[in-house]
Amino acid sequence: MKSIRIVKKTLAMALFLSVMWLLFFWSNIGILSFENVNSKSIPLDVKNKLCFVNYADDRPHISNSTNLKMIYYVTPTYPRPEQAPELTRLAHTLMHVPRLHWIIADDQPICSELVLNILRRTNLPFTHISSPKPFIYKGTNFPRGVSNRRAALTWLQENVGEGILYFGDDDNTVDLQLFEEIRNTKKVSMFPVGLIGGYGVSSPVVKNGKVAGFFDSWPGSRTFPVDMAGFAVNIEFLKPTATMPYIAGHEEDKFLVSLGLNMEDIEPLADNCTKILVWHTKTVKYRKPTVKINLKKLDELPKYRNFVNLLKETSRLGMANIEPNNGTKPYITRNRKSYETLTGLQ
């Protein structure tokens, strides 16, 4: 009996020490916090990496008058099959905007060559940041884009003293007129965003030239119930306390509150919020397939080198996995006949 009691005490002590060690470990890596929940309460030691900064604007067709304020267009993104086409489409809008610096913060722990190549091809000034989501949120899509926007905010606060900040997701559609309007923002400007929620639009309500309220299908007990694409901020108004919380649905509101924004500070744009100049468009999610093709064997057929290069590009862009031993068996079609290999075309 005595030996059993000793074993029980030993196990109890071991359990106690294990729990204490876990609590200590979790608190240090940011999984556990005993602070009150607010915009800075969760320890979020994300290892961001500044991948590349280019200040040169090499667009020959754009006149970059220094009389125009620089717009810092912050785009959070993450690796997926749609990433390259989304960024490419957005790039071809931003390439028409004078005095614009594109900041892409990518939710992955490496500096993506794919993203960097897209940025370089635009000839825009740009900043490329690797800003992975904190570990505690790795198993979920929420809250989306916060680590990326926080990383961009940190870079702006450390490197930029004037200009206009705008958060533009990689799947948004933007009218060029919006850039000309937000460039004159004194503190915080706001405007409608189309294709939002149950009302079809999210917008400030303007009365006598001033914002009197908000039209948004999810009030959510928010002081400023607006969409992320529905406001711009003068960087001189960007206080050192400015931050964005990891609270899904409250990212915009808490960020604006952290600026010390008052209703009377808001500047309504888009003809007193009567026009829609930005839309929260969304690309249909594409389930990345795995295709069973042995690229090494195909490389042995010089006459089909172009086709092999296409398959490699498809894989590089993340649109499909090309595997030699598993996946969907592909077919080549010619004259209404299907062949399992390229030999049928020879």
TrEMBL record:
Q: Which GO terms describe its biological process?
A: carbohydrate metabolic process; chondroitin sulfate proteoglycan biosynthetic process
Instruction: Cite the InterPro entries for this sequence.
Output: Glyco_trans_43, Nucleotide-diphossugar_trans
Q: Which UniProt keywords apply?
A: Glycoprotein, Golgi apparatus, Manganese, Membrane, Metal-binding, Signal-anchor, Transferase, Transmembrane, Transmembrane helix
Species the sequence originates in: Parnassius mnemosyne
Q: Which cofactor does it need?
A: Mn(2+)
* Top-rank taxon, per record: Eukaryota
TM stretches of this protein: 12-34
What is this enzyme's catalytic activity, as reactions?
Answer: 3-O-(beta-D-galactosyl-(1->3)-beta-D-galactosyl-(1->4)-beta-D-xylosyl)-L-seryl-[protein] + UDP-alpha-D-glucuronate = 3-O-(beta-D-GlcA-(1->3)-beta-D-Gal-(1->3)-beta-D-Gal-(1->4)-beta-D-Xyl)-L-seryl-[protein] + UDP + H(+)
Q: What is this protein called?
A: Galactosylgalactosylxylosylprotein 3-beta-glucuronosyltransferase
